[in-house]
Amino acid sequence: MIKFDFNTYTKNYFSELEYLKILEKKSDIISKFNSSNMIGWTRELDQSIIDDIKATAKYVKENFELLVVIGIGGSFLGSYAFDKLFRKYFNDDKFEVIYAGTTLSSEYLDELVNYLKNKNFCLNVISKSGTTMETTITYKVLKDVLKRKYNSEELKKHIIVTTDKEKGSLREEVNTLGYKSFVIPNDIGGRYSFITPAHLLPLSINYDIDDIIKGYFHGKRLIDRAYDYAATRYLLSKHGKVVENYCFCEENMLYFGEWLKQLFAETEGKDGKGIFPTSTLYTRDLHSLGQFIQDGNKILFETYIKIKDNNYYLEYNGKNLNDINNIVIDSVIRAHSEGNVACLEIELDKLTIENITNLIYFFQLSAAFSGYLFEINPFNQPGVEIYKKEVRKSLEN
Ligand code: PA5
Known about the structure:
Blueprint: E1 2-9, H1 16-24, H2 26-34, H3 47-63, E2 66-70, H4 77-86, E3 96-100, H5 106-116, E4 121-127, H6 133-147, H7 152-156, E5 159-163, H8 169-177, E6 180-183, H9 197-204, H10 209-218, H11 223-238, E7 243-248, H12 254-268, E8 276-281, H13 289-295, E9 300-307, E10 315-316, E11 319-320, H14 321-338, E12 342-348, H15 353-373, H16 382-396
Parallel strand pairs: 2-3, 2-4, 4-5, 5-6, 7-8, 7-9, 9-12
Antiparallel strand pairs: 1-12, 10-11
5-phosphoarabinonic acid binds at residues 72-75, 127-129, 132, 135, 189-191, 266, 381, 384.
């Protein structure tokens, strides 16, 4: 169960009339959304794809020691953030999945190559365009490790490609070399691709993807809440609150914050518009950014994602530690709101696959609605292309 409160600590920042005006746009925005050709992520998956993912996960677990996933941005954050949420902090016993390709750190890659040298591993390279620099370089380096050990027939068994159905160099490689492959559909952009093989395959190694898929589509019922969230943020931004801080109280949620940052930054940040997303871990960051948030420039609002009951029953002075954490967070919300920071709250009764996948759908819907409220295209990312062009020019010289 998820509880939303976008009202208690925001009502001083805009009028009822302003809110009603945004509400009047709702049906128009929903029809714009419904007529977009980039909402393939609202469509149920074919059973044949689900079966193929499950069979491939079984093949990986039965034949290899570990899976190495290569991808960046929308081809990385969804499954990585989800996996972080549900692994144990210590002595985790899940199948080993390593993520690579998210930086050009030669130190990381060199250590990874050394680590993999004597391991029996499978590669899953994920790129919708098939041309992303970080992914291409990492794939080449790790494929070379395999090439040093196997002939081309053997190599084939160690590589799984997830990419566009027709375009890009990865698809060409699949067509010429016969690698196992999955498709990221044309009508789903990277940051909205959680419900595609780009994320479901890496997740299927350790999780029941039927639960993930069911929970994700169950998020559809939250459409009104999603509009409400988009509308509240939009109005706050019109009143100078142009930075949104996602606040977490559990360390394992930090990458969910990274996923949110990518989703909203790439969706809204265009034409000089949008809200800058950032994130904090409380109570840790009360001892650093907390000073600015409480007392600094009043450009911020906060969205808290709280877990009511985390199933751990440690006590301090006769009080449940999780309750203490929640009491502290509620006090922080009151303190920050006294410091002129608008606060929105989302409370999960527990950290479950159902709740998290509901939230993924909810946030994707909100981000898209928000794009239409800001009158920008929610599904492109022209700003990202500009750096890619510059890099290509420099590396070619
Ligand atoms: O959301 C997006 O579209 C981007 O963040 C992409 O996912 C990212 O740039 C990686 O692209 P690709 O999957 O083509 O390698």
